[in-house]
Specification:
Two copies of one chain form a homodimer. By secondary structure, chain A is of the alpha/beta class. Chain A has 14 helices and 15 strands. Chains A and B meet through helix 1, helix 2, strand 12 and helix 10 of A and helix 1, helix 2, strand 12 and helix 10 of B. Chains A, B: This is Xylose repressor.
Chain lengths: ~400, ~400
């Protein structure tokens, strides 16, 4: 088929616009001629695409890029910090958080609104989310920047095509259509909180640029973000990272999911606290985890033994992951991050014992760099990445919001 | 940096040559003008790159592509079945196999040379491999085609950078440098047999075009090939797929690796045969597995119970994989393929019970389409793909073998 139809030309422009922006993001300061050389596109094509990216504030032209004295053509192209921002939202069990992420990855206007969302009707929670989103948009307005898209982190199974939350047991949700509830003004991306926490870790902090790791995060439940080749895997349906339901003992106790010996049931925060004899009436877990950390610091034998048992179980599950995927690092997030100093020993021993290639590829046991902010920041990053991966669609949407 | 250096120009040509060939592979029959439109490259650039691909027999020009009457420019470009072939080698515990794979994926000259390689000095085995390779090259010569590269499948842990076999316990190998032993004439890619079996399944048969699955294959050991987004994952070091050492019972018996309750120790072929009371003195396992299949067909209670227990254990390990990666299918290969009809039931029940998203994403339990040929065919495919992914390097190597 010869691409003479407008659809064909528009596909080519979409592809080439993305290619040009990707080149600028990869090598900030590149000139238009440099982009042409790197992409193989004609210089005139590159110039017209760059003009559109500059007009949409996705790219800035900085000072002279080289001393060639050829004026604008010689200026350097850089991602614009005042371009469209990603708006991150996290629907936690006991809070709603928001933040803005600019095209250079900077985080702004981080806000956490406490409130128990368990058992509350989803419509009520989503109304609160809508208020938080409006407030974050107003923040963006005051900063004179556009919001280009929404990312929403939830503690549950999310269908990656529709964005529907199939199940979020700790919220009591099933089949909640978040994109429909948040309106059609902006694109809405919904994903599991551990996946988005991994997106956040990937984009900033000590793990930035790390190509392969598994983040295992304990909130009320236990989830993982699987990062391979610098990207978080979402799987065929969007249901990756359910490490909380990996079996660590087929004769173990029955989990809320109905199966025996799941990691979450045997080494999740509730199990650790119960095993250590620390009372945890309900969420939030901050206070009982702080209590547990205090007992650990005071060398309380029951607390130390409970966390050691949890470390072994976490090690059994993570050794399976490392045997399967050959990742060089596991990262502890959420409640596990707070217990890292006591978990890392027994966990590391189990990895050494069970990873068949351990002598050639020791596994690092790291701690989350972003802490409690990881999921909401990752949600903003994910929304931003959707724009940066397909800038032409963003530009056309801004030019003609009805389209 | 302005790309004025020859290195810069050569990088661009390398990139563009690969892009042009990828387009022809993706849409066979495309014209030169069609390639230009699809890639955004100038028509003159495309024509010169296509000329080089045709000269190297990587691409053929077929009859008129359309009725535009513009002669050669209108002919269709297709991958050439007489272009450079990939030479696949499988070093099995009790055989060495070879085959040739042409650029359209066709398999030729499949040969299996029986011989017990266990405990034999690696140099002796590699001398036999070298003889098999020379014989396969002679086959290629008689067919009038070039061999572009070697792929070698081994039952062990392979360092993906150096191609050194770190450990192949069932061969008794450690630190065996296959690329050095097979000479410098051709590029040599070495990988684990389960990984290459997955490459083979991906390229042909019923699973061709399937984007995501995990192949779990039982030979003497148990290994997996993890396929995500249509590519076999090799991991950071090359050590992926070691599902045989995923823990299915922390209180289980001690495995040869030193850990307790590994899948291979509890549900590998040797364990199943022992549990069923079938005598298996040594490899090859063909005869005892045929004996077991006979007993299963005759509804022997001990055999049925043993395979059911193995199915449950395989289900525990694979439910963990599906929970983590959200793949829609698991594929049974090697000895497991022969037992598929009896394993699939208990395995499927365990997946239903343990996969947290099972109600929205049932997991198919499939059987390998290629059977015993999968690894050697995949080895040839992998060698071929290296050429197709970087045709410029192949073309330069053929033009100047000393470079």
């Amino acid at each position: 088929m010869r691409p003479t139809s407008p659809a064909g030309n528009s596909d080519v422009r979409r592809h080439n616009t993305a290619m040009v922006l990707a080149e600028v993001l990869r090598r900030p300061g590149l000139s238009r001629a440099g982009v042409a050389a790197a992409t193989g596109l004609a210089k005139a094509t590159v110039s017209s695409l760059v003009d559109r990216l500059v007009a949409a504030r996705l790219v800035d032209e900085s000072g002279p890029q080289s001393a060639t004295g050829r004026g604008r053509r010689g200026t350097g192209l850089v991602p614009s910090p005042t371009g469209p921002h990603g708006l991150g939202v996290e629907i936690g069990v006991d809070y709603v958080a928001t933040c803005l992420v600019d095209p250079t990855g900077g985080e702004h206007a981080h806000r956490v609104r406490p409130g128990d969302n368990r058992g509350r009707p989803p419509a009520e929670v989503l109304a609160a989310v809508n208020r938080a989103v409006r407030s974050a948009k107003a923040d963006a307005g005051r900063r004179g920047v556009a919001v280009g898209g929404l990312g929403v982190a939830v503690p549950g199974l999310v269908d990656r095509v529709s964005g529907v939350v199939r199940a979020a047991p700790n919220l009591g949700w099933s089949d909640v259509d978040i994109p429909a509830a948040l309106g059609a003004e902006l694109p809405v991306l919904v994903d599991n909180e551990a996946n988005l926490a991994a997106v956040g870790e990937l984009a900033t902090g000590e793990l930035a640029g790390t190509r392969d790791f598994v983040l295992v995060s304990a909130e009320i439940g236990v989830g993982a973000g699987v990062v391979l080749d610098g990207a978080v895997r979402r799987g065929t349906h969007g249901f990756t990272g359910e490490i909380g339901h990996v079996c660590v003992d087929p004769d173990g106790p029955v989990c809320s999911c109905g199966a025996r010996g799941c990691l979450e049931r045997m080494a999740g925060p509730a199990a650790i606290l119960a095993d250590a004899g620390v009372t945890a009436a309900s969420a939030p877990l901050d206070r009982p985890l702080a209590d547990l950390a205090g007992r650990l610091a005071a060398a309380d034998p029951a607390a130390l033994a409970a966390v050691r048992r949890a470390g072994v179980r976490l090690g059994i599950a993570l050794a399976g992951v490392v045997n399967l995927l050959d990742v060089p690092a596991v990262v502890l997030g959420g409640g596990y991050a707070r217990l890292h100093d006591w978990l890392a020993g027994p966990l590391g021993e189990e990895l050494d014992r069970r990873v068949i290639a351990a002598q050639w590829s020791p596994t690092a046991v790291l701690v989350s760099a972003l802490g409690g902010k990881a999921a909401v920041y990752g949600a903003g990053q994910a929304a931003l990445r959707e724009i940066l991966a397909d800038p032409d669609t963003y530009i056309r949407r801004v030019a003609d919001p009805a389209s």
